[in-house]
Specification:
This is DDE-type integrase/transposase/recombinase. It comes from Pseudomonas pudica. The protein is an alpha+beta fold. It has six domains: 59 residues, SH3 type barrels (Roll); 70 residues, no CATH class; 87 residues, no CATH class; 160 residues, Ribonuclease H-like superfamily/Ribonuclease H (Nucleotidyltransferase, domain 5, 2-Layer Sandwich); 75 residues, no CATH class; 60 residues, no CATH class. The strands form four sheets. A six-stranded antiparallel β-sheet has the order 13-16-17-18-15-14. β14 and β15 form a beta hairpin. α6 crosses α7. The longest helix is centred in the first third of the chain and has 21 residues. The C terminus is likely disordered.
Length: 626
Amino acid sequence: MNGSDFKIGEHYRYRGQRFQVLDVRQDTVQLRATEGQRVVLRQTVDILVRAMKRGDLVKTQEAALIADPQKILAGLPKRYLLDFDRRLHYVQGLMARFHGHMPKDRASLEISELAKRINDISIPSFSTARRWIKAFCTSGLMPTALIPHKRQKSKHRLERQPREVQQLILQQMDALYLKPEPACKTEVIDAIILALRELNDNRPSHDRLKVPSPSTLNRIILEHDAYERTLAQKGSKYAQRQHGWTRKRPRPARLFALVEADTQQMHVLVVDEEGQVIGRPYLTAFLEVSTRMPIAWTIGFNPPSLDTTLKALKLSMSSDNPFGGVAERYVFDSGAEFIGDNLRRIIGMLGGEVCYCEPGTGNQKPHIEAFFGVWSKEIAHMLPGTTFSNIAARGDYNSEDHACLTLKALDDIFSRWVKEVYCERIHSSLNTSPRMAWEAAQNPMFPPRRHSLSELHHHFLRAFTASAQQGRLRHKSLFWTGPAVAYLANREPKAEKLVVFYDPSDLGKAWASHPSYPEELMELQPVDPDYQEGLTLHLHQETVKRLRAHRQSFDSGRARAARVEILRDLAYLKTTAKRRKYYQTKEHGSLEHPKKFRLPRPNRPQKPDNYRFHGKTPGDDAPVEV
């Protein structure tokens, strides 16, 4: 097989997916998926032939045929169309007189008469007319058989060049044009012409190659496939967005057949109770697709992690939530906050299934992405302290100076918008509102599966054992207390350690039980509620790492300060302007730490001056348990 055996418009089953041939040039074929994911492949003919022999490439549909000859004739150039009309005039006249037979004498006279009717000064010979009649009859009396064959098969201008010229053009385009920092077309054309001239200098005069004109080279560059050019210059993510195609997804037929979830950093700066700017909070939301109903969401400063996802997931399944329920299938992206065995285990134990999107394919969960977009455009970009979506939209607006909303105020605004605006207005894809769609989808015989918080604790909680010390239980530098601690510690039979359960998505909650009575759980309170309430295990571990880096012992006050420092770093240092300012300050030496905070070098351990060590103080290389 060769490239001409693949026709534009053919459909093939390849790698378990259906593709359509959209471009054939030289020895390569471009295939694009017609269903499922947006995939663009350019394979060589040799690879496709081997795949066909293995049975991996199977033709499922031939190229489309145009049965109406008028559509073909309408695309002919004018000079070819005039020649076609002339041939058709002679063929119709001869067929009407002789019905396909061609007696030489009488046919020659008829040809002369037909020429007089149209004033044709170039009368066709008898053999030429007989060839036209033969082609007309053997094609099933199709007029398209009379189209002049002088018109060459359309092909790319690059393929009209000699093989050596083709290779040199492609080489220069790969080196100068098909790259993330492309040269302008004028420079590429000049480079091609100079390279061809150098090649001709080393060839004999009778064997020199013809150098294409600049206009021809410009057309060759313009004819290069737009997707492949964008892919080489701007990357796959941009190319998929510019050349992607979508198909309307079928709406799920029943409630909780599909739920989409995602996390987004909100475009608003919030402050604490003293008015100090903390940073941008994160929004995690679960959306029921069949009704477009947001069934659960959480807003907090904890960075996206598995703990924040589990917190929102628990709310979406709770019986206290009137819109809660366990879905048949959950669609997440491939972010770190959604990839985890614990998340798949919990959903699987409750009867659900987890599906992940490929990186950079937001169209695989379009409904939750659209939900975030509507919130940002309608509300978030009009709130005081908004950061907008890009620097161009921000202009001279100083988000930090205008920030005045607390986290609770922002949570109240978002809840009111969801309940009073988003769920009450008509959605074009539903022809009704989400609330009315939710009520219409209710089936008394098959209500949504919901679980009480006590039942969900079994799946979401983690456990550890600890000894009671001064009425407290310690784990990972955190303390919980309550009247149940002393009661359980002195209960017979006395146990050396108690079993403690905690929620990694909210370290302000914990429950303890006696090893001999595991079914009796008693609630505990955090020792430092200002730090622990609403704190996730992920952010706590990041805070501990920050304190260790500064050689500071764990303290609730230092921990709160380190937590705010982490949130500010996440909010500001991601922008280009902040990074530039950071490195400018670092270059001037303004970011040098004081001596007591300076870390020792790996090869030269140093100790701060004027510091009295206890005799049992471990060295710098000793492990520290927190």
